[in-house]
Amino acid sequence: MTLSPEVRSLVQSTRQAARILAKADSETRDQALELIALELEQQKALILLANQADLKMAEVANLSTALIGRLKLDEAKFEAMVAGVRDVCRLADPLGQRQIHRELDQDLVLERLTCPLGVVGIIFEARPDAVSQIVSLAIKSGNGLLLKGGSEAIRSCEAIVKAIYQGLAKTAIATDVIQLLTTRAEILEILAMDKEIDLIIPRGSNELVRYIQANTRIPVLGHADGICHLYIDQSANLAQAIAVTVDSKTQYPSACNAIETLLIHQDIAAQFLPQVAEAMPQVGLRGCERTLKILPNIQAATEEDWQTEYCDLILAIKTVDDLESAISHINQYGSKHTEAIITEDQNSAQIFMQDVDAAGVFHNCSTRFADGFRYGFGAEVGISTQKMPPRGPVGLEGLVTYKYQLRGNGQIVANYSGKSAKTFTHLDLE
Amino acid sequence: MTLSPEVRSLVQSTRQAARILAKADSETRDQALELIALELEQQKALILLANQADLKMAEVANLSTALIGRLKLDEAKFEAMVAGVRDVCRLADPLGQRQIHRELDQDLVLERLTCPLGVVGIIFEARPDAVSQIVSLAIKSGNGLLLKGGSEAIRSCEAIVKAIYQGLAKTAIATDVIQLLTTRAEILEILAMDKEIDLIIPRGSNELVRYIQANTRIPVLGHADGICHLYIDQSANLAQAIAVTVDSKTQYPSACNAIETLLIHQDIAAQFLPQVAEAMPQVGLRGCERTLKILPNIQAATEEDWQTEYCDLILAIKTVDDLESAISHINQYGSKHTEAIITEDQNSAQIFMQDVDAAGVFHNCSTRFADGFRYGFGAEVGISTQKMPPRGPVGLEGLVTYKYQLRGNGQIVANYSGKSAKTFTHLDLE
Question: pTM of the prediction?
């Protein structure tokens, strides 16, 4: 597609500003975050007013209650939003980390150092509080940022970005480093800029993520599906199995790390299934044939159920022959997100964790722990279900890459080849 | 596209065999490599005979001298090929490396461990000695492998794979883990299998790489272009500048890390350019207007020259105003591969290495050092010019990913949220 001169020039100014940000030291970046937090606090009334206007329009437009819930900024959410900026500020600097330091030969020294990706594009829906979090992560990691929010949150996002600009204006960092895009046409333009944008992070529905993955050559950090399973082995502690099932399904059913399918070993199905059904009466169960023999009043599961992320209080149940069958089912239907086993048998747990192909393989705990904050990353940029790193919950690490720097005093390769070739020392340094 | 049942079943058998290989311990994998090396040695005569047949067909088909050179297996190449298998064997095990070991709370421990990608597809041209190297890397890293070589090397590749199978037959590793594909139609089928294949590594011409990148959703490890630059700053040591220019251009002109464009600071152009032209009379020079004033007898460079990877003894030369202009030119035309500066000014070097956007930024040494073996990786899986890791020369690290393993004793997330929420300890362990 042909890019409009406006968008091209906007992205170029972001890229230019990002180059300068990339050189800012850790203190400058952290100070900018603190100034942004202060400015947000000062403009709280204006931001909440803008949010009120968005909410009014959302009601007029008859948007879903769930969406309005995500759109709404109340006092508590606002405070969490500002605290989030300061949390990112406190994280370790992700830039300039030395991953390799090696003498190749005398006075020829290789370093691998982390550096920013360049320009990151974020496309998100509804939640205006995502703006300040994403901006903080981008500044902390030295990246330029193109933000495209949903039209339903436009007034809130603009008010938040205005406060961010006023915070940045007090620093040496150019405000161009952050750009808020407001029209839908700009999404398509952004997706086409694979030379100018280094990473796209979609935050929203599975449909949004799938659409973006299918329409860009830029790397995408995200996941379209979260079809997670919990397998209850025959040697499970049943009380534990019930508690973990209830938590994995009901603690936050619309989360991507909630389970969609429960797999149960045939030997304990008759004992376990009635108990788990009783423990979560609010969940609509769907069972395979063998499960229906034990729970005759639930709906029958179809092939489609094994492939569905309900994002709701619905759970498919399959009674399986053994550990092997459970692993096969997961490797066939799982989305490589998070998979868990409940068992007292260490050997079965080991086999499960080895053979299940997923970013997270858990033993005797809830799948809901799959999260950047719970893992201790201090922030979550996204969760990736791709096979290549970064996979699983991704913290600031996902916004940086590295460069190899090699310093010499005139070395040439000709001296390291042929008959009287010099040899490399390959000595790792401190 | 619809996949033929034959290819689908072949890939599934590779995937299955790879799952078992992934569980093999380091010793088993290393032993397999040694058995393969022995079998190659024993079948040397048969392999060289098959190569003779390929060479005869290549002559009949009037293939280029360069291609025939790459196709040809002589005694020295054969020995290097077998030594290469043993070199991979000696590398550190890339699997099971613990990257994170963290207590999230009491008895809730997170580990991040490296594991194989799964199934890797390699599409290469001509060089039959690539087969044993790639097979060794795949076995060492626990991955299944689909090999698609060029038709011109088919007899040599089949003979080598036969020896590899006979080596593997003496181990617990199923031969299905390695598959040699022989028809061109299979390439398209492989590229469509984004659910079954985890990484594609193209080894061959820029056209091959570009074709593959444009026709698959599978991650591709490789680079289509290697447009590298050398910038001679005004404070360069001229003798060093000349030696590094000659090496970077002529030591192996068809390599991707050879330079295509030389940038020279205007203040020393009149002194430097005649000397460098004299130092490499075999190189065809093309210059910008200012360069032509100093070297009036060389060809004029056009816009196209700045965008061209010659892979030949041709060098474009541009006289630039200053360091800033050199960096701008590189960031506009470079392929993010390897870029070098020659200067005695540490500050200029620092700015160059910070601002140039490339996998490798070098100071006072030849661009030809950008190579997995020279970096001390012991092997080179490929060189990536993408921004996301892995970038630059990629060793065995490029064939592994990681999994998060979380072990608990029944923990649920509900206890870590709400009013009386437990807090995480997030304590890094040994």
Answer: 0.93
